[in-house]
From TrEMBL, chain A:
Function summary: Involved in oxygen transport from gills to the various peripheral tissues.
GO annotation (BP), single: hydrogen peroxide catabolic process
GO CC annotations on file: blood microparticle; haptoglobin-hemoglobin complex; hemoglobin complex
Gene behind the chain: LOC117548572
This protein's name: Hemoglobin subunit alpha-2
Residues of the Globin domain: 3-144
Organism, as annotated: Gymnodraco acuticeps (Antarctic dragonfish)
Heme listed as a keyword: yes
Protein family membership: Belongs to the globin family.
UniProtKB/TrEMBL annotation, chain B:
Pfam families, per database record: Globin
Family annotation (PANTHER family): HEMOGLOBIN FAMILY MEMBER, HEMOGLOBIN SUBUNIT EPSILON
Occurrences of domain Globin (ranges): 19-163
Claim: Translocase is one of the keywords in the record: no
GO biological process, one term: hydrogen peroxide catabolic process
Entry keywords, A to Z: Heme, Iron, Metal-binding, Oxygen transport, Transport
Any one annotated GO CC term: haptoglobin-hemoglobin complex
GN (gene name): LOC117548564
Family that this chain belongs to: Belongs to the globin family.
Gene3D superfamilies reported in the protein's UniProt record: Globins (1.10.490.10)
Record protein name field: Hemoglobin subunit beta-2-like
Amino acid sequence: MTTLTAKDKQTVKAFWAKVSGKSEDIGADAVARMLVVYPQTKIYFSHWPDQSPNSPAARKHGITVMMGVGDAVTKIDDLKEGLKELSQLHAFTLRVDPGNFKILSHNILVVMAVMFPTDFTPEVHVSLDKFLAAVSLALSEKYR
Amino acid sequence: MPENSVSADLQTGSDKMVEWTDFERDTIKDIFSRIEYDVVGPAALARCLVVYPWTQRYFGGFGNLYNAAAIKGNPMVSKHGTTIMHSLDRAVKNLDDIENTYTELSVLHSEKLHVDPDNFKLLADCLTIVVAAQLGKEFTGEVQAAFQKFLAVVVSSLGRQYH
């Protein structure tokens, strides 16, 4: 389900080049939406003094996540190898249930639609959806 | 939860009413009063057929679905997309009884059209994306939550008569 074609990779890289300048805002908005629309995800952030969606901690986390996504774009030809350490982090330290990767991916797509309505065409949507699924799979690699 | 979708699964047993806050009611009605059914519907259905191409299995009689451009320009896709929006309109007007409002539609999709109910969630996700693009910054997290809750109730009601 997640094999990226050459066209997918080209589409993702081209779209990322257009939007990466706003990567901090994208990440912050995606995490904020996740916390509001899927409140069960807040359990991973019980250590934040302020768990509100627009808190500095939430924004910082959104920035971190999106930096990871941007890094994954550069490693698009071998995500399993490229995201090895991040997978170890998520598997052994963070222990995020992988179902949540899908939730965050969905919210990243919603933010793309909000911020880039003309560029986020169905063709870009399908390639980006596949890419985020491939990233999620690579992040899940070390879980068991 | 099916592999491809993140719309919430809702258990709406016949003895449990869905409860809507005033914010949710107002938000849902507001969204539907602002979007153009014959723009959003076709765009959402076309997007679904492109992003989840296996959904094309239900539209064998629709002619050319060969690529994204063909799907977007297909008049039968557009017409059906608009039809879907008018059906959703009925749910908006009957927020407190979506389940009964959709009994016949559920039977139709199950007995006649044989649509895998997991596919309703895929279309719901595409509709969320299209509405987000239309409303832009006004599609806040809170608005998104209300809209996705509405779609989850619709999806659950559509799946109710399958057996």
